[in-house]
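Listing S7. Sequence submitted for prediction.
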Amino acid sequence: MFKFRRRTRAEIDAETLDALFDPAEGGQTISNAYGLLGRTHRYLRTEVATGVNFYSAASGASTLVVGFGTSRGRLSMPLFMVLEALDDTRYDLLLLSDLTKRHFDKGIEGYAATLPELMRRVGEFAARGGYACVVTLGTSMGGFAALRGGDLLAADRAISIGGRFAWHPGALVRDRRRVQAFDPLCHCRGPFRAPFYLLYSRDHPKDPRDAEMLAKIAPASRAIAFPGTHHGVHYRIRQRGRLDAFFAEMLDVQKEPDAQKLVAMLD
């Protein structure tokens, strides 16, 4: 007999907040007015283009984090969770949404037609903002796109969490999609211009395979394997109340991330 699963209060809260607390263009801020957020932030959203949103507290942040998100504008978790954990005095976020679910192969429609063009525009955005550092960050289908983008930008750091290679044959057969003939993530382009960091769960059914494939293409990339099977290790870390410490460790380009410290966040 089929049984309905009762959703937890935390799941309902997260769903509600995902709709309510995406900061609106023109001044609405993320707040803890409903008593559900850990602390108040001053991030404001500016819509640069459809699928391109900029989050800033206008506090002179020195690092631009370029997020490669899903078609729904997430980084494998509701966006408010990410913004809640970021230090808004140090980091601004430019969130790119993969509206067509093609690993950003076609850029973002209406803004850039290819991934290289998309990265040129992001580079211009970062230059206008006068940022001292640029870090690319992606999860799942945006993970390896963040590595590709980081290399094209010559970013200070490129981070993939549970990254996936673009695998086009099935999509080509089903949808007759045209894809770019050139993939920036290719061993023929090495050495890459950005330091690559690959975070994944060692017992996940697919993540280790993609990590192994990447190691053959970019042997200098640093892989950090976490215990467990969860595709998004950063979400598990948030459940333990340590996402702010995770971002502090991964986004600070002035020092090398401590792998033991990161893995211990799941203890």
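Caption to Listing S7: primary sequence and predicted structure tokens for the chain studied. The domain at 34-264 is CATH 3.40.50.1820 (Rossmann fold). The chain is about 30% helix and 20% strand.
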